[in-house]
Amino acid sequence: MEERNNRRTKIGVVVSDKMQKTCVVSVTSNVKHPLYKKVVKITKKFKVHDENNECHVGDTIEIMETRPISKTTHFRLLRIVERAK
Q1: 9-82: what fold?
Q2: What is the DSSP secondary-structure string of the chain?
Q3: What are the C-alpha distances in Å from 57 to residues 30, 44, 49?
Q4: How far is it, in rounded angstroms, from Cα 10 to Cα 28?
Q5: Which pTM value belongs to this model?
Q6: Exposed/middle/buried for 14, CB within 10 Å: 0-12, 13-18, 19+?
Q7: C-alpha torsion 45→50→54→58, nearest 10
Q8: Where are the domains of the chain?
Q9: Please, are residues 40 and 48 in contact by the beta-carbon 8 Å criterion?
């Protein structure tokens, strides 16, 4: 039996939880600019499958890349790192 490849995981903050079984997560990463060599902060939003609607706005969560669940959803919730205060 073959082992499957390690899937990418990211940690981000929930921005929206208005949809059913889906939340929008904002992931921030630092990238070095190719020409100017300055470190630039890049923010990207991902739609995440949240089966039990556990996430709420402000929560820090870990997400994992998975097969396409819908047209725009390609990540799923792994765990909630920290609840919003």
Answers
A1: OB fold (Dihydrolipoamide Acetyltransferase, E2P) (2.40.50)
A2: -PPPPPPPEEEEEEEE--STTEEEEEEEEEEE-TTT--EEEEEEEEEEE-TT----TT-EEEEEE-S-SSSSEEEEEEEEEE---
A3: 23, 16, 15
A4: 9
A5: 0.86
A6: buried
A7: 0
A8: 9-82
A9: no
Q: What is the pLDDT of residues 41-78, one digit of tens each?
A: 999 999 999 999 999 999 999 999 999 999 999 999 99
Decide: 44 and 11 in contact? Cβ < 8 Å: no
Strands 22-32 and 39-49, sheet pairing: antiparallel
CA distance 73 to 61: 16
